[in-house]
């Protein structure tokens, strides 16, 4: 369905005279009164998201409201499509729609993950010019959500957004991440190294000179006392070795002993599960 939605989006982009009719056609399937089946609702949400990325839908504000209402749908596919749609519609008018998504992420724990997925669409597909004025507006709630929620999935989505924002304005946000690497909260440290892992995924060298002096401080979290932080730091090293090997090559004499020490089996980390009369490790 995603490919179909992309195709419809490209057709409308090249023939914007049909935009109003296309929006009207698919928006009727996401209304409360609609009797459309799940597949039609999902496709309609995806198409409206593709269109909202380059068409300002603020004149039809009810479309965005209807999309948000599908965050409460019983079908997971509908909820996921609604998050995609909300985030991309927001790109068409960040001033109008972004605050609503941020409010949901901070006020409704049951919809927090979906709202973060919507924000991820904004951060992923928004242009540098669009993100720059709202970066601070996004950074604070994203960091708060990633460090206050115990769900790893929530932290991962928020951290990926933080990583993307960092690559758009590295001189502004790399120092902010760096100041938290010694935070007393393991959740904060986990967020920091997870966000850095996502910055390594961007192979462009535009911010390497800013990252190079800090890379050992971040990867030094492989020695952290918290298991989750160590695991994420090892994942960050793996990402750096694949996409930015020049940043870690000179530090291998210090990094490899830490890496090898993590290959030693630690009995205290072995989980024993009781299954009837048997125990399994």
Description:
- InterPro entries: ARM-like, ARM-type_fold, CAND1/CAND2, TATA-bd_TIP120.
- One of its GO terms (biological process) is SCF complex assembly.
- Keywords: Repeat, Ubl conjugation pathway.
- With 281 residues, the protein is an all-alpha fold.
- It folds into two domains: 126 residues, Alpha Horseshoe (Leucine-rich Repeat Variant), CATH 1.25.10.10; 145 residues, Serine Threonine Protein Phosphatase 5, Tetratricopeptide repeat, CATH 1.25.40.90.
- 68% of the residues lie in helices and 2% in strands.
- It contains 17 helices and two strands.
- The chain has a two-stranded antiparallel ribbon.
- Strand 1 and strand 2 form a beta hairpin.
- Helix 3 packs parallel to helix 5 and helix 9 packs across helix 12.
- The model has no long low-confidence stretch (mean pLDDT 89).
